[in-house]
Specification:
With 212 residues, this protein is α+β, with helices and mostly antiparallel strands. It is built from three helices and twelve strands, in the order αββββββαββββαββ.
């Protein structure tokens, strides 16, 4: 056998050995023969419009120290500091950021929650229509409604604790007397209180008893 013939035979044997090795590996691990597929990336989570994450810093929901003689379950509206407290007892309360009435539209007193509504319709009261005649006379509930995701009506007044589709107003004096919360916060509060819950609205001259 010539040298060239020997080289060709050796090359053929090497090819057969390599093929056998690949076949054996593929049997042991069939994924070796599959084309490369990049690992899927986890979806990026984003806050939905109107959530607590969009509230201005300092107005996000949290449990705080709070001294009060009011019974657990009472809502206290701290008008001058634009906070709402849900009394838990034992010196604790859940504090929420809120928007309150603008100058000339704040009020104070004690009321109770007389009605609750999810995604409430909005019918501006005559007093508001007189000041702002361009307002709609009626708006169905939904994400575009200025009352937001929930509303808790206060006694027989025109005032409510309600959500908002503009969370940037939390911490401000912006309303016609209603109490605004982010949609996430108003849903949370709504789930914790019942019709008949006592609501204490402090005057602008009051100072919060919260321990900051």
């Amino acid at each position: 056998m010539t040298i060239s013939r020997l080289v060709q035979t050796a090359a053929a044997i090497a090819t057969l050995v390599a093929a056998a090795t690949v076949a054996t590996s593929a049997t042991a691990n069939p994924f070796l023969l599959l084309p490369f597929q990049p690992m899927p990336q986890a979806p990026v989570e984003r806050a939905m419009p109107g959530t607590d994450e969009q509230a201005p810093a300092g107005f996000r929901r949290q449990i705080v120290d709070y001294r009060t003689s009011e019974a657990p379950g009472t809502i206290i509206i701290d008008t001058p500091n634009t906070h709402l407290y849900l009394v838990l007892g034992n010196g604790k309360a859940i504090r929420y950021g809120i928007g309150v009435g603008r100058e000339g539209f704040t009020w104070s007193g004690t009321q109770t929650i007389s009605r609750k509504a999810e995604w409430p319709d909005w019918t501006p009261p005559p007093e508001m229509i007189a000041r702002q005649p361009y307002l709609p006379r009626y708006m169905a509930g939904g994400p575009g409604n200025p009352l937001g995701a929930r509303a808790m009506y206060l006694g027989n007044t025109i005032y409510r604790i309600h959500g908002t589709n503009d969370p940037s107003t939390i911490g401000g004096r912006v309303s016609s007397g209603c109490i605004r919360m982010t949609n996430e916060d108003v849903v949370d509060l709504y789930s914790r209180v019942n019709i008949g819950t006592k609501v204490v609205v402090l005057p602008m001259q009051a100072r919060s008893a919260a321990m900051r």
